[in-house]
Design brief:
Elements: H1 2-15, H2 17-39, H3 43-67, H4 83-104, H5 112-132, H6 136-144, H7 153-172, H8 174-182, H9 184-189, H10 194-216, H11 218-232, H12 242-264, H13 268-298
Helix pairs in contact: 1-12, 2-7, 2-11, 2-12, 3-4, 3-5, 3-6, 3-10, 3-11, 4-10, 5-6, 7-10, 8-10, 10-11, 11-12, 11-13, 12-13
Length: 299
């Protein structure tokens, strides 16, 4: 076991250290943010927001030669969209989708059906953009599969700073975010507008996804937003521990996913998903025992 872990680490260090660091940072922040969706009973937003960013990234690949015709001037060498252009595409798609969800929302909530529709629209848009784009094979390989194995230092730094900023804001605004998500009536008594705080939540999630998905792809962010918080929802000993424990499960699962991928020669994204499910179940068992112990000590 020790030898296998050492071999995996040597391969990761040699081949994709930037992608590994990027994934670990995302694994801490995304599950913490995903708890807001689970508490609001809006898990489909965790599907819709990353997929919107993925659709915007795909559209950026599709439209890049329209804005820059010289990109396809040579049949042998095609220029690729810059990071800024991809961010603009993902950000625009996120903005359009969030405006639509906000307009469709009622009483500070977004219906799961609306989020599911937006997710399906984003999925269909991305698929069509990949098929009809001028470089479908490279675009699909680099963006749709996550690019975790080919993350560059520029992309790593973008994800790190975006994730750190998002986590700082979530912790700073935690009381308002939790109260408006957990008890709408009490939030109104505290003079917090649930619709405004729903919009703030969507902007936090949307901005983070718009900045990170062009680097990592939508699947990894989607898995991190939903799997640990959903499994740990009823196992954590307190609401205050929900975010940190979900982040712990995300961190362990992502590291395990990289190990599985390199040891078993599995695709990276499915390996990370398998690692997240396994780690979340293990952490949920431990958290459940702690919760039971706390109840017994009180009685």
């Amino acid at each position: 076991m020790i030898h296998e872990l050492r071999d995996s680490w040597e391969l990761i260090h040699a081949l994709c250290m930037d992608g590994f660091v990027t994934s670990l940072v995302l694994a801490v922040v995304a599950p913490w943010m995903g708890t807001l969706l689970i508490v609001r009973r809006m898990p489909f937003l965790g599907l819709a927001i990353p997929q919107l960013a993925g659709a915007g990234t795909a559209l950026a690949w599709l439209l890049f030669p329209v804005f820059f015709p010289e990109a396809l001037a040579s049949q042998e060498i095609h220029q690729h969209p810059s990071t800024l252009f991809l961010l603009a595409g993902s950000g625009a798609a996120i903005l359009v989708g969030l405006v639509g969800l906000t307009v469709m929302g009622r009483k500070g909530r977004v219906a799961s059906s609306h989020a599911a529709i937006v997710y399906l629209i984003g999925l269909a848009t991305a698929e069509i953009a990949w098929v009809t784009g001028p470089y479908p094979e490279m675009a699909e390989s680099s963006a749709r599969r996550g690019r975790l194995l080919t993350v560059l230092p520029e992309g790593r730094n973008l994800v790190v700073w975006a994730s750190v900023a998002a986590l700082v804001l979530v912790i700073w605004l935690r009381k308002q975010l939790w109260l408006s998500a957990f008890d709408v009536d009490l939030a109104r008594l505290k003079r917090l507008n649930p619709s405004v705080w729903l919009l703030i939540t969507l902007l936090l999630l949307g901005t983070h996804a718009a900045l990170t998905v062009p680097v990592t792809g939508p699947e990894v962010l989607l898995a991190l937003l939903l799997i640990p918080p959903a499994i740990l929802n009823r196992a954590v000993p307190s609401l205050a521990s929900y975010g940190p424990i979900s982040a712990l499960a995300g961190l362990l699962g992502t590291a395990a996913g990289f190990h599985l991928s390199f040891q078993k020669d599995w695709p990276l994204n499915p390996s990370v998903i398998a690692g997240l499910v396994a780690s979340s179940l293990v952490v949920a068992s431990g958290a459940g025992l702690i919760r039971l112990a706390l109840r017994l000590t009180k009685t």
